[in-house]
Write a structure and sequence with these properties.
Elements: H1 5-8, H2 18-23, E1 38-44, E2 50-56, H3 58-61, E3 66-70, E4 80-81, E5 88-89, E6 95-96, E7 102-108, H4 111-120, E8 122-127, H5 134-138, E9 153-161, H6 164-170, E10 173-181, E11 193-198, E12 204-208, H7 213-224, E13 231-234, H8 251-261, E14 265-268, H9 271-277, E15 284-292, E16 298-310, H10 316-326, E17 335-344, H11 358-376, H12 380-387, H13 406-415, H14 418-424, E18 436-448, E19 458-465, E20 471-475, H15 484-496, E21 503-507, H16 524-551, E22 558-561, E23 564-567, E24 591-592, H17 603-607, E25 612-613, E26 624-625, H18 626-630, E27 639-645, E28 660-672, E29 677-688, H19 695-714, E30 720-721, E31 724-725, E32 744-750, H20 767-770, H21 772-784, H22 795-798
Length: 813
């Protein structure tokens, strides 16, 4: 189905947070204020690699208006953090390993005084020569950045299957290429920050953006040295993350300062500090050698991946695992020799980023496929079909995966698309200047969802009828722009034929939601859907049973509907389709509580307020309202919980995935060979991800992912020199603007799932970002004949002299 507003009809559901966001009324966590709050700042290293000889804080402590100056000696618990490998110091003790390393933190009565206090801290260093590349870090005799070595290797991976060496000896054609990908910045609109509030009971309330509130709570408890229950983390709404706020950032400093001072502490990074200290996409070098028979069947594939993880681990090991798994693509290759290494350097931190290593791997693998097809003088799409895995083949790690037709379906849909036909039959345009070249390229991907085998991946949720008579759902997922709230509204309205005004949706608050895992790895929609499938029957049974007792009508003659319980056959016809906010009778779009902006809006009022409240509007045709039902029995009788794990392969392959989403992408580009500029004109994404719950959100995710991929491909690179950022702000970092993005984008959704599928809609948060880069570079090749192996595409590589015949008497000078 081609997704657009017309095709989606009544399912075109406006986001409840849309209007507040575009009007600027929505208050983010970094907008929160309290009358008695003070301001925190962090002193970061002057050098990418140095010994700390001394830290003198006495002058800063003596300044008027300075309430605290903290260093490593002031950390009561573990002076380390990191979700998977806690190797990053809260405050450095003896060594600094990158320019974002924290040495001290201050709290003062104004941001200006806090800045003065940072300037007053005297730090003596012994500068060391930084390891500014993976080659330098892996060189014999290189200093070890961490004691847990060996050397500067964080993690190694490998896939060995068949005999690649022998297979290469029999191949008729071999393509060898090295691919390079950039250190991309997340560039979220809201930089890292939050408000940290100690209360009278000794608990700490943390209002700071994260993709996993429970993980933040666990890490902060280790740092503070207290029970997790002593900390509350409120983590939504978020002004963008894309993986960049998955790790702790300002939270340790805000928490420690607030507890030391006994007052609320506000922290908010400038963009420059966000660039300096924040995560980036892993820059990678991927060496590939791929061999095939004279019939165009791939026989052997050798890959060597080198990832620069920077000074600390973050999630460098899982990212490398994912990249290794996806560097084989969706292809059946009998002989495989893959090795990967993630390397510590003194460069900026690399970490989790939308696509999670898949972007780099798919760019390289799809580049190989195009080069191999060119050698065969074969249509590149047909070449892919010849080598694609069959429906029942195991996954890339030889693990069992859920069988679907998604791969062949996206291939076939793109093959018949009008855009791809342009590649096969490029139209002539004599009006085009000779320096403007056009081309069309395509790529295909299978992308694993969830954290993979062997990694804890809990899920669950809570469904209840609260004392206000609202159907309340609670998850520990976050809303960071992906449209989760709208999707949950649609799911609940579908299940109970209710109105938006009947709902209360609670997310991102560890005091109010069960542990349902993180908002990452394209897992949230699937897990929410599975949780509601488990919860709907007991919840509905309870509702109808109590309504039957109250009305005397048998429960099998009752149904849930807008406002409460109805007799079957009397439910308003319009509720058979999901109610959209602009057409909801008697209701308005859910009002999102504005935090911290109005004079009477305080953090305390936010603590007890649902983020999403809707105005009451109940039809008069009800038998019993939800509010009346809520008065019956004890409150806990209306609460239903479920716990389960994300589905994983039954095979013991660490990191191996079970559920995959499939996508095929075609892209048309225009290349100016005078300037080297590439313009993306048209794209078509075909995605096989199961049922479309939220058409608007689905399109938004694919479009947003593709714009991020466009930057990855053409313009974005956080440049470093000698382990220092040359790119320090957005003035020198080229994010695609409205003028740069594609003129046209079409999204075709394939909703088919195998009969009896128990997993519902698959996540699509990443799939829109992983395959566009190779489609663009393939289009550049058709346009110019130039193979691109480095991102962002070097403009100078595309510049060609213009050989135009001169008229008689005209001088070339």
């Amino acid at each position: 189905m081609l997704l657009n507003r017309k095709q989606s009809g009544k399912r075109w559901h406006l986001r409840p947070d849309g209007a507040p966001k575009v009007t600027g009324q929505l208050q983010y966590l970094t907008d929160m204020t309290l009358p008695d709050m003070i301001h925190g700042r962090v002193l970061r290293s002057e050098y990418p690699y140095a010994r700390l000889l001394s830290i003198d804080t006495s002058e800063a402590e003596a300044l008027e208006g300075v309430y605290a100056v903290l260093t490593s000696k002031d950390v009561p618990g573990l002076n380390r953090f990191g979700i998977a490998t806690p190797d990053q110091p809260v405050f450095c003790e003896d060594i600094v390993r990158y320019v974002g390393d924290a040495i001290a933190a201050v709290a003062a009565d104004s941001p200006e005084r806090a800045a003065l206090a940072l300037d007053a801290i005297r730090v003596e260093y012994e500068e060391l020569t930084p390891l500014n590349s993976t080659d330098a870090a892996l060189a014999p005799g290189a200093p070890e950045l961490h004691e847990h070595g060996p050397g500067n290797v964080l993690h190694r991976t490998e896939i060995k299957r068949g005999d690649a060496e022998q297979a290469f000896a029999t191949c008729d054609h071999i393509v060898t290429e090295t691919y390079y990908t950039p250190r991309q910045m997340h560039a979220y609109m809201e930089t890292e920050g939050g408000l940290f509030v100690p209360d009278e009971e000794g608990r700490l309330n943390v209002y700071a953006a994260t993709q996993h509130g429970y993980k933040d709570r666990m890490q902060l408890a280790r740092i503070i040295g207290c029970p997790e229950e002593n900390i509350r983390v409120v983590s939504s709404p978020i002004g963008g993350s894309f993986g960049g706020k998955d790790e702790l950032n300002v939270q340790p400093y805000g928490a420690l300062l607030a507890l030391r001072c006994g007052r609320p502490v506000k922290m908010h990074n400038s963009r420059k500090e966000s660039v300096r200290a924040g995560l980036k996409r892993h820059p990678m070098k991927i060496e590939m050698q791929t061999g095939m028979s004279r019939e165009g069947i791939i026989q052997a594939h050798r890959v060597r991946i080198t990832a620069d993880t920077g000074a600390y681990a973050t999630l460098g090991a899982p990212v490398l695992n994912f990249c290794t798994e996806h560097c084989l693509g969706p292809y059946a290759i009998p002989n495989v020799d893959v090795e990967g290494v993630s390397v510590y350097t003194n460069n900026g931190l690399s970490g989790e980023f939308r696509g999670f290593g898949g972007n780099q791997a798919i760019f390289a693998m799809e580049g190989q496929m195009d080069r191999l097809a060119a050698i065969m003088n074969m249509d590149p799409w047909e070449f892919r079909r010849r080598n694609m895995r069959e429906k029942n083949d195991p996954g890339p790690l030889n693990q069992r995966i859920l069988v679907t037709d998604g791969l062949s379906q996206v291939w076939e849909a793109l093959d018949r698309s009008e855009l791809w036909q342009k590649h096969q039959h490029p139209p002539a345009d004599p009006s085009m200047p000779p320096w403007i070249k056009r081309g069309v390229g395509a790529a295909i991907a299978m992308h694993g969802a969830g954290l993979g085998y062997g990694i804890p991946d809990p899920a669950g949720g809570r469904l209840s009828l609260n004392n206000e008579g609202k159907i309340e759902v609670a998850f520990s997922y976050e809303e960071f722009g992906q449209g989760l709230i709208a999707t949950l509204e649609i799911m609940l309205c579908d299940l109970f034929q209710c109105s938006i005004s009947d709902l209360s949706i609670i997310i991102g608050d560890t005091d109010r939601v069960p542990h349902s895992g993180s908002s990452t790895a394209s897992r949230s929609t699937t897990m929410a859907w599975m949780a509601l499938q488990r919860l709907q029957t007991p919840f509905r049974s309870r509702v109808l049973a109590v309504a039957s007792e109250m009305s005397g009508i048998p429960s099998d003659e009752l149904v849930t509907g807008p406002g409460g319980v109805w007799r079957k056959g009397q439910l308003p016809a319009e509720t058979s389709e999901v109610e959209t906010p602009e057409k909801a009778e008697g209701t308005k779009v859910a009002e999102i509580v504005a935090v911290g902006s109005e004079s009477d809006q305080t953090a305390e009022s936010y603590l007890g307020a649902s983020q999403y409240q809707a105005k009451e509007g109940v039809s008069s045709g009800l038998l019993i309202s939800y509010a009346e039902l809520a008065t019956q029995g004890e409150a806990d009788e209306w609460i239903f919980d479920t716990k389960f794990d994300y589905p994983t392969t039954p095979d013991h392959v660490v990191g191996g995935h079970y559920l995959y989403t499939y996508a095929a992408v075609a892209a048309e580009v225009e290349v100016n060979t005078l300037t080297g500029e590439t313009k993306l004109l048209d794209t078509r994404h075909v995605v096989a991800a199961g049922p479309v719950i939220n058409p608007m959100g689905y399109i938004g995710q694919i479009e947003g992912g593709s714009v991020m991929a466009l930057g990855f491909t053409l313009t974005e690179d956080t440049v470093m020199q000698d382990s220092r950022y040359v790119t320090t702000n957005l003035d020198t970092y080229l994010i695609p603007t409205i003028q740069d993005i594609h003129t046209n984008l079409e999204v075709e959704a394939i909703e088919d799932l195998p009969e009896g599928d128990a997993f519902g809609p698959r996540g699509i948060g990443e799939i829109g970002s992983v395959a566009l880069a190779p489609a663009i570079t393939a289009a550049i090749h058709q346009a110019t004949g130039i193979w691109v192996n480095r991102l962002p595409v070097p403009r100078e590589q595309l510049v060609r002299p213009l050989n135009v015949p001169l008229q008689e008497g005209v001088s070339p000078s």
